[in-house]
Amino acid sequence: MSNRLAKEDSPYLQQHKDNPVDWFAWGDEAFKKAQDENKAIFISIGYSSCHWCHVMEESVFENEECAKILNDSFVCIKVDREERPDIDKHYQEVHMLLNRRAGGWPTSIFCTPQNKPFFAGTYIPPESQPGSIEGMGFKELTKLIAQKVDEDDAQLYKNADEVESFLDHYEHPKEATLLKEDFYKNFLHQVKNNYETSYGGFSLKPKFPQVNTLNTLLVIDRLYDEKSAKAMLLHTLENMSKGGIYDLVDGGFCRYSVDTQWRVPHFEKMLYDNALLCELYTKTYLTYKDEKHLRIAKEIADFWQNFMSEEGLFYSASDADSEGEEGTYFIYTYDEVHNLLTQNHFADINTILKQLEVTPEGNFEGKNIIRINDKAPKMFQEIKILLSELRTKRVYPFIDKKVQTSWSAMMINALFTLGSIETKYNTQAIDALNKLLGTMHLDDILYHTTLIHKKPKIEAFLEDYAFLSQALITAFKYTGKEIYLVLAQRFINTALERFYKLGKWNFSDGEFETVAEISDNTYTSSVAVIVDALFSLGLLLEDDKYSHFAFKTLEYNSHELGRRSVLYPKMIEQVLRYTKGDRIIKSTQDNLNENRELLSALKYPFVHFKSATNKDLMICGDKSCFANTTDANEIDKLIVNSF
């Protein structure tokens, strides 16, 4: 018999509806029951495509003994962190406070009956492991906690009160420092110290793309011809695209790699990763004109359009697991590939297999992830189609069909940038933006998430206002349609009203008033993105108040930005934008459209386009225009000469 989660829209909560655990969704009913019956609260946070969330479900939440302990002694609450990022952020802070290290998913939180947290973990196996309390299994841990709550253990409640007092205390920065262009030198120095020289990236394993760090390296090279920034960027993008973390068959990037070489991924694919990487590969192509970067960008966009969208709206994620195992859909046996090549009469099959890293031993649990380490087979496009056809006979991984405003806006932003090269992506971006607005902006209220064909219920957070405003400003840049700028201004005004106070931004208000981070973690900081949008709006509307709010945000965080720059790549980019200044190219909309790709490929990174009556291309700063030309190829030189 299904539990209460059967009534919920969230795909993640739906995954747990048949657990023997008596789950509640987040809400007053659960907290009232805990107080009335003096039961500890167990909060489990995850998301639908999370591999270790599935492992914990199978080993713990479907375990009858674990479920009995939970049902007898706890009130259990399931939270979809993608649906409620405000709740997730709050409890990630709890985890950091209690463990002195970042958490992850699944997140396991234990609270008093009054909902004061005192213990936080991630994946907890059912049985105990030798060692410290971290090695305590779920059964032993829950029995101990239940006993202490029954006994009204004074130390447990004291610890919970201390945690709550720490959470209620927010320290403002102690000092501000002058915003300097030189911040980028410290950033570059710290990035070099973290750089993994063999295969690129900024750690050994696990290895995440860290798109914002790469994007800021691109900005630095465009501004300063910085060879080390260019080398780190291109080396990393090259190795990531060889296969493994990048799916060479269907397209699209997986969440991260478990090895140093980017070969073995966790196979889930997230919209935000692919949106940010699509934009980065596009900008890298526009800068260096290497066709392979454009190919990757287009393959990402096409994958999401073909596999992960419906009626112009983008799905949020696909799972790593299918048919009960990780990666089943994505990997191949040696015999499968050998027979495929033989049946289709390919010559020199052994060479092709070697080029694709396909061996009898395999490179992943006895099977093969398709990867091209050196040189692709001459007929790879034909081989890829055949490999894709093999996959169609398999069960496709679970798709989370939530629509997220912030993540969708990231992909729309990427599509507009890609559309500067190929018009069909511009058309897709316009369609997706209009569909997103029609779905998530209802009766003057912006919402965070919903399922397709369902009415949204959860109102937007700062990230939704930030990324949507950024996408609208990009839409204005590439279409010239004023309505997009008007909407961006409206959303930014609301964000300022709800989330901004004296340089500090909250991520959410209401039930959880959580502070927005300036660091780029899972994806780009919403503070950095709203600063970017504020600078753009101030420039395009010639209204200094927006630029003032952007400056005050940078100033408020300036000491930290100068000290630990590597944690804040998008904010460092905004410091460079503030110190260097923007440029606007003005001309007729027809002329801007005709020169769209050339203008998008300008070396100077902080450029906007604006429709005007003059047929020449005018180059302007924030207060005046200083040059004009009929040749778009001259603009880079004119911009350089303006400094």
Question: Could you outline the blueprint of secondary structure elements for this entry?
Answer:
Elements: H1 11-15, E1 23-25, H2 28-37, E2 40-46, H3 51-61, H4 64-73, E3 74-80, H5 85-99, E4 107-111, E5 117-121, H6 138-150, H7 154-168, H8 183-194, H9 211-224, H10 227-240, E6 256-257, E7 265-266, E8 269-270, H11 271-288, H12 291-307, E9 309-310, E10 313-314, E11 317-318, E12 321-322, E13 325-326, H13 334-343, H14 349-355, H15 380-391, E14 399-400, E15 402-404, H16 405-419, H17 423-440, E16 441-442, E17 445-451, E18 458-459, H18 462-479, H19 482-499, E19 500-501, E20 504-505, H20 526-541, H21 544-556, H22 558-563, H23 569-580, E21 583-587, H24 589-594, H25 596-600, E22 607-611, E23 617-620, E24 625-629, H26 635-641
Parallel strand pairs: 1-3, 2-3, 21-22
Antiparallel strand pairs: 2-4, 4-5, 6-7, 8-11, 9-10, 11-14, 12-13, 15-17, 16-17, 17-18, 19-20, 21-23, 23-24
